[in-house]
Fold this sequence. Notes:
By secondary structure, the protein is α+β, with helices and mostly antiparallel strands. The protein has one domain (5-24, 42-296): Acetoacetate decarboxylase-like, CATH 2.40.400. It has helices at 5-32, 44-47, 67-73, 82-88, 154-161, 217-224, and strands spanning 52-66, 79-80, 96-111, 116-118, 121-132, 141-143, 146-150, 166-173, 180-181, 187-193, 199-206, 228-229, 235-240, 254-263, 271-291. A nine-stranded mixed beta barrel has the order 1-3-5-7-8-10-11-14-15, surrounded by five helices. The chain starts with a helix and ends in a 28-residue tail after the last strand. Bound molecules: 2-acetamido-2-deoxy-beta-D-glucopyranose (5 copies). The site of one 2-acetamido-2-deoxy-beta-D-glucopyranose (NAG) has 7 residues, from strand 15.
Amino acid sequence: xxxxxxxxxxxxxxxxxxxxxxxxxxxxxxxxxxxxxxxxxxxxxxxxxxxxxxxxxxxxxxxxxxxxxxxxxxxxxxxxxxxxxxxxxxxxxxxxxxxxxxxxxxxxxxxxxxxxxxxxxxxxxxxxxxxxxxxxxxxxxxxxxxxxxxxxxxxxxxxxxxxxxxxxxxxxxxxxxxxxxxxxxxxxxxxxxxxxxxxxxxxxxxxxxxxxxxxxxxxxxxxxxxxxxxxxxxxxxxxxxxxxxxxxxxxxxxxxxxxxxxxxxxxxxxxxxxxxxxxxxxxxxxxxxxxxxxxxxxxxxxxxxxxxxxxxxxxxxxx
Length: 319
Ligand SMILES: *[C@@H]1O[C@H](CO)[C@@H](O)[C@H](O)[C@H]1NC(C)=O
Ligand SMILES: *[C@@H]1O[C@H](CO)[C@@H](O)[C@H](O)[C@H]1NC(C)=O
Ligand SMILES: *[C@@H]1O[C@H](CO)[C@@H](O)[C@H](O)[C@H]1NC(C)=O
Ligand SMILES: *[C@@H]1O[C@H](CO)[C@@H](O)[C@H](O)[C@H]1NC(C)=O
Ligand SMILES: *[C@@H]1O[C@H](CO)[C@@H](O)[C@H](O)[C@H]1NC(C)=O
C-alpha cells in the first residue's frame, strides 16, 4: 500500500513522539503509576509485534436520530448508506439513522517490536457509521469528528488531532477503567473537558433478557470495524477482534440499557437521551494508522461474515 509522503511524515512524527514518551516514562514509571486497570492484558502484541495493538474496553450504544438531523450534521459530500444499516437492522425505525456513542478505555497499547508502550487513556465521542466516503455506494466509513480524550495523554490527544479530530482534553470517572459500578448496580462513566463545559455521561443497566436488546452484536462488530475518519485527510483502520477469550464465555458482551447525557460536538448544547440500548464489550485490536482513505474503498472488515477474523498463519483461534 502506497502511503503519501505527507502521511509518512505524520507517521514518522507519531513514532518519534511515541519514542520520546516511552523514554520519559521509562524514567518516571514508578511515580506515574497512579492506578491499576481491571482491563485484561493485550495478548495480540506477541502475535503482531510490528503493529500497534491494544485493548479497548467499551460501552457502545446506539442513539437513533432523525435522518434529517444526521444529514444536517454529517458533511454533505458523504452519502448515508441507509441500505447498509437496514441490511443489519431491518426493523430500525423508518426515517432514522443510528449514531454510535463510544465510551472506552484504551489499555496496554503497544508497538512491541520497538519496545513502545503507551500510557492508558480514556476517550468518548459520537461516531457516524455507514457513510459513503469513497463514493462507490457500497463501502461503509465512519465519521468521528470529535473526541474527549484523557488530558494526561498528549500522544493520544495529538495522535487523534492528526486526523483532523476536534479533541477536548478531559478528565475521567473512573480514572483507569471503562466504567465503574454504582451502589444501585448500574455502570457509570463520565468524561469532562478540562477546558470547556463539554462532557459525556453514561449510566447503564444490564438487560437481563437479550431479546429486549434491539441491536445484534453483528451491528457493533460491523460499525467498530469500519475505517474511521475525521476531516478525511487520512483514515484509521482499527481491527477489533470479538472472537478471543476477552469477549466470550464469562466475558461475553453484556447487553445494556440506559441514559446518555452529553454536551459534545457535533451536537450543539446539552442533550439527554433515555432508553438507549447498547453493549459493553472488551476487545483486543490492531490499528493501522493514517492510511489513505481511498485505499480502504471496498474494504469489508477483515473477512468472514462480519467477524474480524485474521486469515493466514496468525490465526486468532488460540487466544
Ligand atoms: C472491562 O472493564 C470492566 C470495568 O472495569 C471490568 O470489570 C472488565 O473485567 C473489563 N473486561 C476486560 C475483558 O478487560
Ligand atoms: C500490520 O502492519 C503492516 C504494515 O503497516 C500492515 O501491512 C499489515 O496489514 C498490518 N497487519 C494487520 C493484521 O493489520
Ligand atoms: C485535516 O487535519 C489535519 C491535522 O490537523 C491537517 O493537517 C489537514 O490540513 C486537515 N485537512 C483538511 C482538509 O482540513
Ligand atoms: C470463533 O472462531 C471459531 C473458528 O475460527 C468458531 O468456531 C467459533 O464459533 C468462533 N466463536 C465465536 C464466539 O464467534
Ligand atoms: C457490514 O455490513 C454490510 C451490510 O450492511 C456488509 O456489506 C459488510 O460486509 C459488513 N462488514 C463487516 C466487516 O461485517
